[in-house]
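Lecture 7, part B: from sequences to assemblies.

Below are the input chains for today's worked example.
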Amino acid sequence: MSSRRSRTRQSSTTSRISDDQINDLVSKLQQLLPEIRNRRSDKVSASKVLQETCNYIRSLHREVDDLSERLSELLENTDSTQASIIRSLLSQ
Amino acid sequence: MPLSEFYRSDNETNESPQQKPTDISYIPNDEFVELVWEKGQIMMQGQTSKARKTPVSSNFLFHTPKVQEKEGLLDVPMSEMGLHPDDDMVPWLNYPLDDYCSDLLPEISGVTGNDHNTLNVLDKRSSYNHSNKDSHLHNVSRSSHILDPSIRSVVTDIGSSNCRNKPQNLEKMVQKQDSLLPYSSSTLLNFSHFSRPAAMAKANLLNHGPQKENGFPGRPGLDSGKVGLKPIEEPRCVEKSSNMVVDANVGKAGVETEKSNEPVGASSSVCSGNSAERASNDLTKNCKRKSHDTEDFECQSQDAEEESLGTKTAATSRGGSGSKRSRAAEVHNLSERRRRDRINEKMRALQELIPNCNKVDKASMLDEAIEYLKTLQIQVQIMSMGTGLCMPPMMFPTGMQHMHPHFSPMGIGMGMSYGMGMGMGMGMGMEMNGGPQGHPHMFPFPPTTQGSRHPIPGLDAGQGIPIPRSSFPVYGHPGQGMPMVFPQSPMPGFPMNPAVRQMGSQMESPVVAPTSKDPMTQLSNQSHVANKSLNQSTLVDQKDEVLDIGCSTAGVD
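Predicted structure of the full complex, as structure tokens:
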């Protein structure tokens, strides 16, 4: 989708086009960020979006670490059946 | 004012340096060399004044530094802007600078105004000169026998003043120039101000270009000494140099130089003293502001630069309107480039955060980031569900399942069965209410092929609804008022085979739920939000759910 479009646009080159496409992507990115998703009204600068993305990814990393720790703890404590269910769930 | 007058006054004022005490023989050559270059570039297209040129050019190679140094006086404030001298400029001395010399000479007239100031400051500065490093000595001796005494004294002044370049001093000097100087010199000052930004750009380019290449290893001591003396200026210089060098402004700087020179001629010969003074005042303010911002961030220094450009543009409009447009374009370019720099910086940060991202292209970088973000969100959701499985906090109204029957066949367990629909609802709800840490734990769940589905036990949120397994932990959400009962509801789309059902009932047992507290809070948050976002559908099905509680483990069959 977006990657295909970006490829097509890239062929026509120049920074103007890539600006549009980057704006597109940035707004998409913005929709993924809970921090600034609802700020549609005000214009959010691209660098702000990128900054927030970085922050958000970091926080997600932290969360994943946290959760995996917790999960491994849980898996140790649970009986095998339950553990297998969880594992199957996680291994998708 | 007529040029002839201009030069006359210039000559007169140049006498004063000659009478200055030449007690200071140390010339910090590196400083004056730098100034040489500042002016050297600017003056390239200067007007001609042969009278000055002849005597000076007889001074062999060093006349250029000398002359330019004098002009450096005009730009003393510039060094405050981070253009302080570099040792590395010394090698440039060895190149034939005669070409510049002739062009530069006319500009010497500008020195007049500054000479007064230099005299004022001389007393304070001379002390510093004595403390100069020995490394200056060889240069001093060289220049001293070449230069005549009067010029040398001027040079000394310049060097010392440069060494001491405190912002206050410079401001003072600028102010003095404005207030003390006679009518004639005001136009000169105007000129000097005009040329400053351009000179700055040039000087940066020239200073730091060679600096990198030559390295000039011979004088570390001098360097350190300078750093100690001018702690404020150092960072600025580096920052400036990075800006200018990285941006490869060469062409632009050249253009600026031309433009700045253009109005100069006009103002010195045509402009009334008033307008000239006003312009110089503006620029002085600009300078002051810059000097205050010394420690500021890169962006801000660029801002200041831009501003000065803008001011120049305004002043230039008197001279020629043709250059105005290109100037505006330059300003725009600057801001655009700044913006791009910021974005690129963030891009790099992002790239570091995304594993296996080798994309150089911005667009694919962003694509990657988006995908990775989604993946991460899903991962977090799954994991939180995994932890949630062990405690029974995930309770969802059966209504949700009904609402999204098309996902049902592929649903797995409690997580999967309400997969997409529920995840959506939860996610949205949480984000709406979410604070900084309000990452949705529930996200659209990809349908899976796991066929297991187990009944989800109800969770009482404080309403005392009977729970099949009494050992279930009750999360206290007193204010919630929404019974989070999640009974097994009749789901035609969910054929349950006995084995799976048995597994499901095993899942219900609160084996580990009470063991950890953090997950509980987390999950209780989730359920809280879920309650809010799902109130309606839950209400619809509440009756059914309550009825179903009793047989929650019985399954549908």
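Note for the exam: Chain B touches chain A through 58 residues (CB under 8 Å). Keep this in mind when comparing with the next example.
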